[in-house]
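=== RUN LOG ===
request id: a7f3
mode: sequence -> structure
chains: 1
length: 141
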Amino acid sequence: MKKIIKTAAPLLLLVLFAYAGLSKLFSLSDFRGELHNQSFPGWMAEILLYTLIPIELLTAGLLAFERTERWGLWLSLFLMSAFTGYIALVLLHFWKRVPCSCGGILKHMSWGAHLVFNVIFLVLALAALLLSEKADHTYST
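=== RESULT ===
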């Protein structure tokens, strides 16, 4: 089971971040509109517009190679934590209004389903990272 997680998790995360980054890139005006419909200030939406796509594509790229996979897993863990935290705040009614969901395939999910989806990928990233760290520690001692 550990070998399956260690192999499959980075691949699944790679597909997720490649899809997310490319779908945003190819529908940039829609992505801009979705960001400006969220509950954070407009200036933050503009920063995210120009940083999120490269970070997601960089994450996918790092996950594509064994040599950089650990960096990709760390970045995946960070991104999935941030996205999951945001969704949790939406569901806890932290803001006065609930924004529309994200774009791509995920726009058809409810916020609750999106949270479950994100938690699964967050756990995958964490499990793969822990298994990777444990394997490296075992080999070095």
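=== NOTES ===
The chain has one domain: 2-140.
The CA atoms of residues 11 and 43 lie 33 Å apart.
=== END ===
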